[in-house]
Design brief:
Elements (H helix, E strand, L loop, with lengths): L5 H11 L6 H13 L2 H17 L1 E2 L6 E2 L5 H4 L4 E8 L2 H10 L4 E5 L17 H7 L7 E4 L5 H14 L5 E4 L15 H9 L5
Parallel strand pairs: 3-4, 3-5, 5-6
Antiparallel strand pairs: 1-2
Helix pairs in contact: 1-2
Length: about 200
């Protein structure tokens, strides 16, 4: 049916371009949009356009914000001596949910991946280094993903920062809470052993 109705086929195709959305999910979303009233559909479309127009990178940490400087960078209660380096704004949200970290962030917007044509200049490493020109920052926490690209990015950045006399640490990785050891892969178990703590 969608093939015969070109606007519907186009709508499904646009939803399929979103990450994690397959054909059936795209169809479901398209039909949901079509079931909306004109007012609801217009409000939905306007919200997307407004977000695209208003949201940009923070001039300090490169996280997403609708002002020049994000609320975290402006918060005087934060610990300005620590910067947690993450790959995406979704990582900031995840860490903030723990309510355990009170420092600042720096969002790279990706990781070094030569196979995908992403080098150090394609992510926000230069912006991070600019932030380290004062004596306030004492520790950089590398919280990139535990992938080949994330590890390479963490190593590359740590090599640039260590000569500045700033401590560089890495998030500990290991067995998730509630998991059975027998199902953990070798890399995860190795990380768990390396990151073990004294009780």
């Amino acid at each position: 049916m969608a093939r015969n109705v070109v606007p519907l086929a186009n709508l499904i195709e646009q939803f399929e371009r979103l990450p994690g959305i397959g054909h059936k999910s795209a169809q479901k979303l398209a039909f949901h949009i079509l079931s909306m009233t004109d007012t609801e559909a217009k409000k939905f479309a306007d919200t997307i356009l407004l977000a695209h127009e208003k949201i940009h990178r923070c001039s300090v940490c490169c996280d997403l914000t609708d002002s020049d400087v994000c609320s975290i960078c402006l918060d005087e209660k934060r610990d300005f001596s620590t910067i947690c380096v993450v790959e995406s704004s979704k990582d900031v949200i995840a860490i903030e949910r723990t309510r355990e970290y009170n420092g600042l962030y720096h969002v790279l917007h990706g990781s070094i991946s030569p196979m995908n044509g992403i080098g150090p200049d394609e992510i926000t490493i230069k912006e991070l280094l600019k932030r380290l020109n004062n004596d306030e920052v004492q520790e950089i926490i590398m919280a990139t993903n535990p992938t080949v690209e994330g590890e390479a990015t963490a190593m590359y950045i740590s090599r640039l920062i260590k000569p500045m006399g700033i401590r560089v640490s890495r998030l500990a990785y290991g067995v998730p809470v509630g998991a059975d050891l027998e199902y953990a892969d070798e890399v995860t178990l190795t990380r768990a052993l390396e990151g073990r703590q004294i009780l």
